[in-house]
C-alpha cells in the first residue's frame, strides 16, 4: 500500500523527464530540440499538418457515408443514411470539444511553466492521431447506387 502513493507522486513529477504519454509527441520534441526557444513556427507547422490530416480523413469518411449504398444494409433506408451522416457530424463536433477539454485537463499541472504550450500541442496532435484511427475503424460503406 505504501508504494502506491510513492509511485503516484513519482509519476506526477517525472512527466517532465519522460518523453512518452499523451503530453509528449516526437515531432514536437524534435522541434524543441532543434530550435529551442524559437520552435513556435516548427511546432505550429506540425500542428497544422495534424489538423489537416484529421480533416482530410474526416471529410473522406463523410463523403463515403453520404454516397453509401444504403440498400446493401439490412433493411437500409435514406433515413438511416441521413441519421448516420448527422451522427457522424455531431460526433466530430463533440470530439473537438472533448479534445480541447481533455488536453487542458491533462496539461493543467504545467500551465504556468515553459513547457505548457508544447505539452498542450502534443496532446492535440496525439488526440488527432487517435481520432484518425477511430474514424478508420468505422470500416467501409458500400459504394453509391442511384437513389430509387
How would you summarize what this structure contains?
This protein has 148 residues and is an all-alpha fold. The chain contains five helices and no strands.
Could you characterize what this model shows?
The protein is mainly α and 148 residues long. It has one domain (24-136): Substrate Binding Domain Of Dnak, Chain:A, Domain 2, CATH 1.20.1270. The protein is 67% helix and 0% strand. It contains five helices and no strands. The longest helix has 29 residues, at 78-106. The N and C termini lie far apart (66 Å). The relative contact order is 0.15. The model is unreliable at 1-18 (pLDDT under 50).
What features would you highlight for this structure?
5 helices, mainly alpha, Substrate Binding Domain Of Dnak, Chain:A, Domain 2, 148 residues
Write the layout of secondary structure elements.
Elements lengths: L2 H12 L11 H10 L4 H27 L11 H29 L9 H21 L12
Assembly context of the chains = single chain
Task: Report the CATH architecture.
Answer: Up-down Bundle
Terminal Cα separation, in Å? 66 Å
H-E order: HHHHH
What is the helix tally? 5
Shape assignment: elongated
- Determine and state the CATH class: Mainly Alpha
Kindly report the average pLDDT value. 85
Here the CATH topology equals: Substrate Binding Domain Of Dnak, Chain:A, Domain 2
Decide which structural class fits the backbone: mainly alpha
Q: How many structural domains?
A: 1
- Helix share bin: 55-70%
Low-pLDDT segments? 1-18
